[in-house]
Every structure is written in structure tokens, then in C-alpha cells.
């Protein structure tokens, strides 16, 4: 399969203990264009090694090619009065503003009358992911396809050129 191909697949994703964390069926498949950062790196890399409709594969994606390590310091204690939810329970996921001002899903891991401790790690961080995949359809990449990584690289070159020229140095 070529980078930029649009792939339709059925899959089941499990943790080491057999817990299913996600799936797609032939009736409700997962469809994405490779090379556009629409799937975790390890899943996409394994999919790119598959070449035929009907092909099946089982593989493990390490935490490093999935959602990364679980980082103990990615928690935040927030005063109860700053939380716009009147009731919140341990395990509940809500959206909270990140340092960049963007909404970020977080999980309540400790709740008291005074504060709530939120975990900002992805729920699958620190876990290897086990996949069973079947390719249902492959569409060739569009002519002149440019991957998301190539676009970022080109954007960096443009940013560098802009700065080097002195135009952006105000």
C-alpha cells in the first residue's frame, strides 16, 4: 500500500488483558487516508505493510507508537470552584482548557469538596495495543499527494525562509 492511500478496514483493538478498547466492523468500518496523521503511528505503519483487500493481520503496537508513556506528572489539582460541573465523579472525562487554550479531554482521578485532581494522560497512555485487522478496501493516493509530515517540513522551510530574509524580524 502506498502512503496517501485511503484504506477501509475492520479491526478490534485490545489491551494485554483482553479488554477491548475499540473496534470497527465491515458494516461500520474505519476509513482514513494514510499519511495524514489520522491514526496512531504504529497502527498506520502496520497497515502500510498490508497490500491486498481481504488481507488480515494481527500485531502489537508499543506504547511508544501509540499514546506514549504514562507520565505521573501530567496531573493537575484544580479548586472545586473553578470547575463548571456541579457534580463530578472519579473516572469521569471532561473537557478542560490546555496551557495553549485549546480544549483537552481529562479524567478526574481524585474528587474532594475542595478540589479535583485531573489526569491529562490519554487513557491508553503507557499501554501496548493489540490489533486484529482486516483490509476491506484500498483506494490509490490522489495524484500529487503530499503527506502531513511533508507539509510540516515544507511549512518549516517557509518559516525559516521568511525569518532568514529579514522580513519577519520586526
Q: Largest beta sheet, briefly? A: 5 strands, antiparallel
Tell me, briefly, the overall form. Answer: globular
Strand tally, please?
A: 9
- Provide the succession of SSEs: EEEHEEEEEEH
Report the portion of residues in β strands: 25-35%
Helix/strand-derived class? alpha+beta
Fold and architecture overview:
By secondary structure, the protein is an alpha+beta fold. It has two helices and nine strands. The protein has helices at 41-48, 148-164; strands at 6-14, 20-24, 30-33, 56-61, 75-79, 93-97, 103-111, 115-119, 129-139. The strands form two sheets. Strands 1, 2, 3, 4 and 9 form a five-stranded antiparallel beta sheet that branches. Strand 1 (6-14) and strand 2 (20-24) form a beta hairpin. The longest helix has 17 residues, at 148-164. The radius of gyration is 21 Å and the shape is globular. The termini are far apart.
In short, what is this structure?
With 170 residues, the protein is α+β, with helices and mostly antiparallel strands. The chain contains 2 helices and 9 strands, in the order βββαββββββα.
